[in-house]
Amino acid sequence: MELSKAICHICDFDEKLMLKPYKTKFDMALDKNPDFKSNLAKMQRLLRVEFEIFGKVQGVFFRKNTEREANKLKLVGWCRNTENKTVAGIIEGNDANIQKMKHWLRHVGSKKSKITNADFKESGITDLSFREFKIVQ
What is the phi/psi pair of residue 25, to 5°? Predict the structure, then answer.
């Protein structure tokens, strides 16, 4: 006797019910409408953040590491060095990943950077303005 049949027999379960995977309402909605998941993703809150990072952030691969982190988090936008020896830019994407990126910009940065301050201006958006994240001049 198979183990699952033995368990059903001992516990007096209907084998068909026990072996059937449980589906939530969300799973059923996905089955009925495959576009449901992409529509749900579109409804996530999108944010745009203008940022400026102060401290020793030029000449320490800060922009390159910012680009790498933004790509990892699937964010779009740009960053550049400023004449004031800061790094400034824009990031856009979903709220959760924007918050992770803000933490990275304020507290982590590149290995050799020394971040003293980070300014952020956050706003809600309905569409992304960029296709990727770039380092600009």
Answer: -60, -35
Is 78 exposed, middle or buried (CB count within 10 Å of its CB: 0-12, 13-18, 19+)? Answer: buried
**List of E strands, 57-98:** 76-81, 87-94
Estimate to the nearest angstrom the gap between the alpha carbon of 98 and the chain centroid: 7
Pair of tokens at residue 113: 């950077």
Count of C-beta atoms within a 10 Å radius of residue 101: 25
pLDDT digits (tens, 9 = 90+) for 64-82: 999 999 999 999 999 999 9
Give the active site residues: 63, 81
**Which residues are paired to 93 by β-bridges?**
47
pTM for the model stands at 0.68
Q: Minimal CA–CA distance to 101: which of 53, 40, 54, 57?
A: 53
